Amino acid sequence: MEKQNNLKCALLSSIVNLNDVIHQEIKDQVTLKSKIIYLVGKKASTDIYYKEACTFYNHMGASSVEYFNLEEKENDQLIDAIKSCDILHLGGGNTFEFSRLMIEGNYFDIFKEILPKVKLIVGVSAGAIIQTNDLQIASFLDEDNTNIETVGLGIYELSCLPHFNTIDQQTLIEVKTYTKHIDNKIFGINDGGGILIYSDNHLEVFDTVII
What we know:
Structural class: alpha/beta
Number of helices: 7
Shape: globular
Number of strands: 8
Helix content: 25-40%
Strand content: 15-25%
Low-confidence stretches: none
């Protein structure tokens, strides 16, 4: 019997050593025929994270994962691929570069329209932050050398900070100061943890600190 409140989005820090509940909830959405898109902003110098994602979904039963990035020009089929996919995996990297490439590639408005309609989005690190309305929180992790006004997609109104368990004490003090200037609560996602968002918009958090 199909669940009434299906998993709609997973905001993660990493897919390595993932919390068992999160792993199972994602696995429940995967079949042999699942069409899975792996999307990053800037093309990486290594495909290690793509291979990591392929292994992750293959072990769950999927047969393949299709790769796209926003930097290469041959992405004319990207929009159609996202519209027809079962799972969209938004990978990591520099969050500000991800936003810049969306804006400069004229993807931003169409992403805001079509991403909420995707059956399941798995956002990892930058791929998690980019879906929210608080892109500036990424400054605790990434340098912003874009020279343009970058923004998040605002699909979810929350602030998430992946790799929370790796930040030092001084950065933690700065994060707590940052909370005084925003309306959102900050969800500090430890590696292996995450936020699950369901179709009725309720959240479940795992290995995550709420500030």
